[in-house]
Design goal:
Elements (H helix, E strand, L loop, with lengths): L8 H6 L8 E5 L5 H7 L4 E6 L2 H7 L5 E4 L14 E7 L8 H7 L4 E12 L4 H10 L20 H10 L2 E10 L3 H9 L5 H4 E10 L16
Length: 222
């Protein structure tokens, strides 16, 4: 008997794409692995990648790739060139992610969308490590990747997108937890979902700046 194929979380992320997407800008495209899945669907993909080695690999998978640091790069393309702009695990690596969301908005068609995957610093294992172990250990990969410059909860993500002139239209969660925690979450009617979410998948559309800012919350200085 063949083993059941493990579900690819990248497919969950890419499911946020609207129907009729013809061309995508993949910001921080890495080796082009994610974009190549779109190419298989007949979607045109252009990437931006600052790592020379990864850029060379991506060039084999995508239609075109720019070797550049997106925080100082002016894309040499026409405005409103893309149906979708993709930020897959990249915003947390940026000095000013809001500026990138704002600056690249001009390359998005009026009816286009952006999709982004962003790690959740409220993840239960991070909290438990702080509470029980007293440590904040940077690693090679994951939520505490040593190259992460920004950390987000869902509240911070929503505020970021509103501030950059977008309206979030869909949120998906990549739940990563033991069966015990999943069962407990089920018994609590989803009450633990924000803590069991490893990363958020966000779909948003640009606005004319009239998105309601939402309820003002108190911010604490420590």
């Amino acid at each position: 008997m063949s083993k059941k194929k493990k579900k690819d979380k990248r497919d969950d992320f890419l499911s946020l794409l609207s129907q009729g997407i013809l061309n995508v800008l993949d910001v921080g495209c890495g080796n082009g692995g994610l974009g190549s899945k779109l190419k298989e669907r007949g979607i045109g993909v252009i990437g931006i990648e600052r790592n020379k080695s990864l850029c060379s690999q991506a060039a084999k998978n995508l239609d075109n790739v720019f070797l550049a640091d997106i925080e100082s790069f002016k894309l040499p393309l026409s405005k409103k060139s893309f149906d979708c702009i993709m930020y897959a695990d990249i915003l947390e690596h940026l000095i000013e992610p809001k500026n990138i969301l704002e600056n690249y908005k001009e390359y998005l068609k009026d009816d286009g969308c952006i999709i982004a995957s962003i790690p959740n610093i409220r993840y239960y294992k991070v909290i438990l490590r702080l509470l029980l172990g007293g440590s904040w250990d940077y690693m090679e990969h994951g939520i505490l990747d040593k190259s992460h410059l920004r950390f987000f909860t869902l509240i911070n993500i929503k505020e970021l997108f509103v501030a950059a002139g977008y309206q979030i239209v869909e949120v998906k969660r990549n739940i990563v937890a033991s069966s015990g925690f999943k069962l407990l979450n089920f018994c609590l009617f989803g009450g633990l979902k924000e803590f069991l979410t490893y990363q958020y998948y966000i779909k948003a559309k640009k606005t004319d700046g009239r998105v309601a800012p939402g309820k003002k919350r108190k911010k604490y200085q420590f």
